[in-house]
Amino acid sequence: MDLTRNRIPEHVDSIHLIAVCGTGMGALACMLKEMGYRVTGSDSKVYPPMSDFLRNRGIEISEGFDPTHLADDPDLVVIGNAVRRDNPEAVYVQEAGLSYCSMPQALNRFAAAGKKPILITGTHGKTTTSSIVAWILQYAGFDPSFMIGGILKNFNSNYRLGKGEYIVLEGDEYDTAYFDKGPKFLHYQPHLAVLTSVEFDHADIFEDLGHVTGAFDRFVGGLSESATLFAVDQDPNVEGLVRDRNCRLERYGTDGTSDWRLGTVAIEPPWTRFQVLQNGHVFGSFRTRMVGRHNLLNAMAAIGIASRLAIPVEVLVSALERFEGVKRRQEVRGRKRGITVMDDFAHHPTAVRETIRAVKPFCPHGRLIAVFEPRTNTSMRDVFQSVYPDSFEAADLVCVRKPPLLEKIPPDCRFSSEQLVNDLRHRGKAAHFFQDTDTIIDFICKEARTDDVVLVMSNGGFDNIHERLLAAL
């Protein structure tokens, strides 16, 4: 492989993106188009909504991967991390001697050039924290740019090209490309950064927790003396990473010695009211429609960043009240027969546990029915088989689907939904196993009652279960 061509030429006019329909690659394509570049793309799965999203912005998309898609020899080819080295277009890039780069390299060169990055990292909470920061900056008149892994309801987009000096980036620890197996977040030099949590995840990339913490160690160790890191407290993995670093450090969470501490909390549906203390003194009182302690910590990290940028407290109060959230993060999809159907991206056992705990107080007159589809490369493996039962403790009724893509996982390390259900039943929990989505819908239609909340958790489309369930109800 010719790594000398892994560079971005000084003069670029035409850019082709391989695997353009991914969330990040699609956003990058749109940003490049808005900046005036001639943009094309290809992917093996070209279908709505991303295909319509891109075409409506004037981006030409080709179905499948074929060297003819690069017949015009574009000035630059951006290769997504889902692309293998034997991809026909990637092979042609090498054979034709075309210049190529990864998504983070392109983002740095084109969208982040000349701006001060605000980078949000961590195993959990990256998307929500990034979204809160981006919205606060916009509300405060900073006109930020951003690229985030979820759709912000306030913008109806996961990207923005602003004229302000800051760009908000969700820092993914996942690998960069087949020619660069390091985490994406290592490509950025942040002005401000957040570390929300560190746990084992992405079992297809990382071998164990030590492998994960090693990646974050490289990130924290690479922060400059002028950078400020906001790090969550009471996370032992984070504690070991932030000691004796060159960067400025501010802690946030629930520890009495932290710079930013969560004060009193009151749940008053649909609001959560909370107080924030800075160095032991009341900084401000806020209210938000987000639910759960984990989201209050996400908000605190954003408040810390906003304070560093001298945004007045009264502006922060108003901005948080007007923050509409992120699609697929505790998003109410509809109500029928007095039954609420909610969608959430949770899949890691910690995220499942915290999401269920967060939603439970908001259904005081009904039951919380948790519907779980394990479909990530980690959740379909047995690495968390013994941990998942604890995650459903606060649910009243649990429905677990068979993983839909289990054939991707070697037989000797597959997750068992049946075993999870059996473990939950042994704990006295009402739990049921389902082979497919249709039977889950049928079951809930018969079982759900007025005031129940159906919380659907999956990182995928789950066979459009939300709309189908609402229609069936």
Radius of gyration: 23 Å
Spans with pLDDT under 50 lasting ≥5 residues? none
User: How is the main sheet built?
Assistant: 10 strands, mixed
Which shape, going by the Cα principal axes? Answer: globular
Give the count of structural domains: 3
Question: Helix fraction?
Answer: 25-40%
Number of alpha- plus pi-helical segments: 14
Query: What is the name of the CATH topology of the largest domain?
Result: UDP-N-acetylmuramoyl-L-alanine:D-glutamate ligase
Number of strands: 23
Q: What's the N-to-C terminus distance?
A: 55 Å
Percentage of residues in strands = 25-35%
What's the CATH first level of the largest domain?
Answer: Alpha Beta
- The chain-level structural class is alpha/beta
Topology:
Layout: E1 14-18, H1 23-34, E2 38-43, H2 50-55, E3 60-63, E4 76-79, H3 88-96, E5 100-101, H4 103-111, E6 116-121, H5 126-139, E7 145-152, E8 157-160, E9 166-170, E10 175-177, E11 180-183, E12 192-195, H6 209-221, E13 228-232, H7 236-242, E14 248-253, E15 260-268, E16 271-278, E17 281-288, H8 293-308, H9 313-322, E18 331-336, E19 339-344, H10 349-359, E20 368-372, H11 388-391, E21 397-401, H12 417-426, E22 430-434, H13 437-447, E23 453-457, H14 465-472
Parallel strand pairs: 1-2, 1-4, 2-3, 4-5, 6-9, 6-12, 7-9, 12-13, 13-14, 14-15, 19-23, 20-21, 20-23, 21-22
Antiparallel strand pairs: 7-8, 10-11, 15-16, 16-17, 18-19
Helix pairs in contact: 1-4, 5-8, 5-9, 13-14
